[in-house]
Amino acid sequence: MKPSADGAGFGWIEIAGRRYRHDVVITLDGTVRKRHKKLSKQLYGTSHRISEAEAEDVYEPGMAYLLVGGGHFGRVQLSEEARAFFDARGVNVEILPTPEASRRWNALEAQGAVALFHVTC
Q1: Residue 47 · residue 75 · CB < 8 Å
Q2: Which residues contact residue 23 at a Cβ distance below 8 angstroms, ignoring those fewer than 6 apart?
Q3: Which of 22, 52, 64, 117 counts the most CB atoms within 10 A of its CB?
Q4: Contact 32, 26 (CB under 8 A)
């Protein structure tokens, strides 16, 4: 069962009653883990562009959908390489500002859904 996103504000997101003050990924089995944003930051100098290496880190076999909470102001985007990586695996990617993405996550009924939430800009 996927954990609920209980709210989000600048610099935090609350998932299943626990507040996180760092970016997170919710995996297929509902595990919440820290986002490995260094995989993108070392290439682009920012975590606002998701690299192919980070896409590989987030991807799981059986994944069909990735919801990206793109930050409070929606700045996070996929690189062309990350987009191609997900397209080649048939993963539909939706990017929304994090507060909106947290509400969307709760409304999702899709099988194979993973989420990545950026908690600042």
Answers
A1: no
A2: 34, 35, 37, 47, 116, 117, 118, 119
A3: 117
A4: yes
- Single-letter code of the amino acid located at 110: A
In degrees, rounded to 5, the angle at the alpha carbon of residue 73 between the alpha carbons of residues 40 and 15 is 75
The predicted model scores a pTM of 0.96
Q: Note the pLDDT of residue 96.
A: 98
Summarised one tens digit per residue, pLDDT across range 87-113 is 999 999 999 999 999 999 999 987 899
Return the SS3 of 15. strand
User: In which order are the strands placed within the sheet that holds 32-34?
Assistant: 32-34, 24-26, 113-118, 65-70, 92-96
Mean pLDDT of the chain, nearest integer: 96
